[in-house]
Specification:
alpha+beta; 5-stranded antiparallel sheet; 5-stranded mixed sheet; 12 helices; 38% helix
């Protein structure tokens, strides 16, 4: 039900009143938030009960007297609906901005410019320091405000988001400090005392600087990926990709980084090509293999298989499973693996890798799960769509067109 419909129903259902828009029974009807509309029965079942709304709703009439104060508003503000209904809006809901100014006096909903239609969402305070997010809509009849509709939300979601951002900034600052300190220290030393070092010492310092620069580059790339994933703007260059070949290339890169080739076992069952971004898929595989090697023991098994679609007409999927023979992940921690900053029981790293992996796989239209391997170690399994050849329609024989 729209705000204008509420006002129409308030007027039609007010009964005998005092001539100022307040019926004798209006406060009790408003407290229950079940006013009887002059509408068919099927519309009574939808939109007439404000207590069903997840956000707080407070409605005041043309005289600034509250006629609606729903259950969510009670929960968010801590104000009893019985005491609020029938009172002046500014008295029943004494909102202040973060500088302690009375919000109603500043916004003046029943006065001011006649072209105003409302107030955007604003972070406000109630007596006692309770935080709320409030927005207002001014419903006018000509130049006169007929009704003020206030929407209220608690700030818990925003606080959680701000806490995540603060954690991200703190993590990034910590991760950047170490390599940048190393780069600064080695470059300053080389510039000041170049002649005092042998060629081997200079080479070692420059290699360290190069490695730290790569670390900073990877961190910045992770931050960009997170920003794109959160905003759903991760762009994929997708085409046919040989998953088995991509896995073997990723394993070869891991071996070059210093790990034994004997640790990796690849089992592929002639899977078809995947429809994926090879660079992003390589990033996923590299992260999973690095985690398996770092946190697991023994062999790392990579299995590729084709999964039949669940429904007719849906594309088939290619499933890749990465198992290690380490201690595995405790059952109570499995639900946190793909969250930001999860590092398990070991320190080091940003804890962003698996969060990014999940975002990349979901951007492909696949899924990723974590569980326990047969060996007792960790098992990661993800799916990506099978590449299907585009269907081309045979051109029709040349025919005379447009002739009469």
């Amino acid at each position: 039900m729209t705000a204008s419909e509420v006002g129409d129903e308030n007027r039609s259902g007010s009964g005998s009143g005092d001539g100022n828009g307040h019926g004798n029974g209006a406060p009790s009807a408003s407290r229950s938030i079940r006013q009887t509309p002059s509408r068919p029965t099927d519309e009574q079942n939808f939109g007439t009960d404000y207590d069903e709304l997840p956000d707080g709703v407070v409605i005041a009439d043309r005289h600034a007297r509250i006629v609606v104060f729903n259950r969510a508003a009670v929960r968010i503000t801590g104000i009893d609906a019985t005491s609020a209904v029938g009172r002046h809006l500014a008295d029943a809901l004494p909102l202040e901005d973060l500088e302690g100014r009375n919000w109603w006096r500043c916004t003046d909903p029943y006065g001011g410019l006649a072209i105003r239609t409302g107030q955007p969402e604003t972070h406000l305070l109630l007596p006692g320091g309770r935080d709320v997010l409030a927005t207002a809509r001014f419903v006018r009849e000509g130049r006169t405000v007929r009704r003020v509709v206030v929407g209220l939300r608690d700030t818990s979601a925003r606080v959680r988001a701000e806490r995540r951002h603060a954690d991200l900034i703190a993590t990034v600052a910590h991760e950047l400090r170490s390599p940048l300190t190393s780069v600064k220290g080695f470059t300053a030393t080389l510039l000041a005392k170049w002649e005092r070092f042998t060629d081997d010492q200079r080479k070692l310092m420059l290699e360290t600087v190069d490695a730290d620069a790569d670390r900073v580059t990877r961190l910045i790339a992770e931050l960009l990926d997170i920003a794109r994933i959160d905003s759903r703007r991760l762009q994929l260059a997708r085409y046919a990709v040989d998953v088995e070949e991509l896995i073997r290339e990723t394993v070869a890169g891991t071996v070059v980084a210093g790990h034994s080739e004997d640790r990796f076992v690849v089992a592929a069952s002639s899977a078809p090509a995947a429809f994926a971004d090879p660079d992003k898929l390589r990033q996923v595989l590299a992260n999973l293999l690095e985690n398996a090697v770092r946190h697991g023991d023994g062999h790392v098994s990579i299995t590729v298989e084709t999964v039949d679609p669940d429904t007719d007409g849906a594309p088939g999927m290619i499933a890749v499973t990465v198992d290690d023979e380490g201690p595995g992940i405790p059952q109570e921690m499995l639900g946190r693996v793909f969250t930001r900053f999860w590092r398990g029981n070991r320190r080091g790293g940003t804890g962003l890798g698996l969060y990014i992996v999940k975002g990349i796989i979901e951007a492909h239209g696949g899924t990723i799960t974590v569980g326990t391997a047969d060996s007792g170690g960790a098992r990661f399994r993800f799916t990506v769509p099978v590449f299907t050849e585009p269907a081309f329609v045979e051109p029709a024989p040349n025919e005379e067109r447009g002739t009469t």
